[in-house]
Amino acid sequence: MVPPLALDIDGTLTTASGRIDPRVFELLPDWDAPVVFATGKAFPYPVALAHFLGRPETVIAENGGVAHVDGETTLLGDPTAPRAVVEAFEAHGGEVGWGDGDTVNRWRETEVALSLDADETLLREVAADADGRVEVVDTGYAYHVKSTAVSKGQALERVAEALGVAAADFVAVGDSENDASTFAVAGESYAVANADATARDAADTVLGESYMDGTAGLLRTLRERAE
Questions:
Q1: Which residue from 128, 157, 187, 223 has the highest number of Cβ atoms inside 10 Å of its Cβ?
Q2: Element (H, E) at 206
Q3: Residue 83: C-alpha distances to residues 73, 97, 142, 145, 193 (Å)
Q4: Res 227 pLDDT > 90
Q5: What's the pLDDT score for residue 159?
Q6: Is the pTM of this model over 0.70?
Q7: pLDDT tens-digit profile of 163-199?
Q8: CB within 8 A of 213, min separation 6: which ones?
Q9: Residue 206 buriedness (CB in 10 A; 0-12 / 13-18 / 19+)
Q10: pLDDT in tens, 111-147
Q11: What is the pLDDT of residue 18?
Q12: Is the separation of the CB atoms in 17 and 46 below 8 Å?
């Protein structure tokens, strides 16, 4: 039997240009075990990916702030403190950086994401005044201002329990510091070659190839191992 999967999206199921790699639609629709998409993106994005793959919409969004399994959505993160930090950041002259029509945050429920063009130093200084309730996570695609009480790993434990599967049965793949908590609870963890230092250090194995090249090779290996 193939193992259940916990898969990041950006940098893991994408090309270097940020597009969903078409091999996702070859390898995942018939994966005969649970597949959890665990991402920093807002909730609609992983739901849409699961939908178009024809898979159950089993997802972790907003770095663990939102979990959806068996048709039930749970908000695990409280947006109050993150939003207050971003308001203070803007009051000090900082800019979120997405311009007009900010779809990055439009459907975001538990955190706020800022462009990598935002003033990181100022943002972290303001977040430091939140008495440990808020942290800034750099995913390589955005700065996520989120509650310290949630993580992808904690959300995976909740989702796994709902599925009746041990978190330790999962194979996790990712590329960023927000995947380190997933790696900590999964039984096997892999960082693609383009992963940041935190993810590489946390993973059991660093793959030899980047982006979906690394993930696709691993998925084929896992399928062969199960045969």
A1: 157
A2: strand 205-206
A3: 21, 15, 16, 8, 33
A4: no
A5: 98
A6: yes
A7: 999 999 999 999 999 999 999 999 999 999 999 999 9
A8: 192
A9: middle
A10: 999 999 999 999 999 999 999 999 999 999 999 999 9
A11: 95
A12: no
Note the pLDDT of residue 218: 98
**Block residue for tokens 């849409």:** 48
Look up tokens 């230092």; give the residue. Answer: 197
For residue 126, the surrounding DSSP H or E stretch is: helix 120-127
- Give dist(CA 212, CA 218) in Å, integer: 10
Give the residue numbers annotated as catalytic, written as ranges.
8
Q: What does the chain come to in residues? A: 227
Could you tell me if residue 29 is left (phi over 0), alpha (psi between -120 and 50 degrees) or otherwise beta? alpha
Residue 26: phi and psi, rounded to 5, are -95, -40
Q: What is the DSSP string of 44-89?
A: HHHHHHHHHHT----EEEGGGTEEEETTEEEE-S--HHHHHHHHHH
- The answer to whether residue 210 scores a pLDDT higher than 90 is yes
